[in-house]
Design a protein that fits this description.
140 residues; alpha/beta; Rossmann fold; four-stranded parallel sheet; 6 helices; 6 strands; 38% helix
C-alpha cells in the first residue's frame, strides 16, 4: 500500500503530525479535528506577552504545509474551543487547496466528544473517496 492510498486522521497535536505527513508523502484523504495553524500561534494565544516564536523549536507549521496538499480534506472544530482557538482552525481550512469541508461544532470545546453531525460528515467523506484500483483489487 502506498501513502496516497491511506486516509490520515489527526486530532489536536496529531493534526499537525498528519498535515506534515500528507504534505510530504500525500494521502488519499485528510481528516482533521481541533487542529491549529502552528504551535507558535497556539502559544501566542495563551501567552501573548512571551516571545513564543523564539522559544519553540518544533513549530508544526500546518498553515504552510497544508497549502502543498492537493487532496480532499474534512475538518471539524468547536467554536468554543478553549485550547486551540476556532479562528486558527478556520485559517487552516481556508489555506487548504483541494476539495474541503469544515464542520463547525456549535458550543464545542476542545475535549468534547464529536457530534452525530461530525460522524455523518465523516461517513460521507469516506464514502466519497473513490476506490483506488491496483492490479485488479479495489481499495480505499
Amino acid at each position: 500500500m502506498e501513502e496516497r492510498d491511506i486516509v490520515l486522521m489527526g486530532r489536536s497535536l496529531g493534526g499537525g503530525v498528519v498535515v506534515d505527513l500528507a504534505a510530504e508523502d500525500g494521502a488519499r484523504g485528510l481528516v482533521l479535528s481541533s487542529t491549529f495553524t502552528s504551535l507558535p500561534d497556539v502559544g501566542k494565544h495563551h501567552l501573548p506577552l512571551l516571545p513564543i516564536g523564539l522559544l519553540m523549536s518544533n513549530r508544526f507549521n500546518s498553515l504552510k504545509k497544508i497549502a502543498t496538499y492537493p487532496g480532499p480534506l474534512l475538518q471539524s472544530h468547536g467554536d468554543a474551543d478553549e485550547i486551540i482557538p476556532f479562528e486558527l482552525g478556520r485559517q487552516l481550512h481556508e489555506a487548504a487547496l483541494g476539495p474541503k469541508r469544515m464542520v463547525v461544532i456549535p458550543g464545542g470545546r476542545h475535549d468534547d466528544l464529536q457530534t452525530e453531525q461530525w460522524q455523518n460528515a465523516l461517513d460521507e467523506f469516506i464514502d466519497s473517496l473513490h476506490p483506488v484500483v491496483t492490479t485488479g483489487a479495489a481499495r480505499l
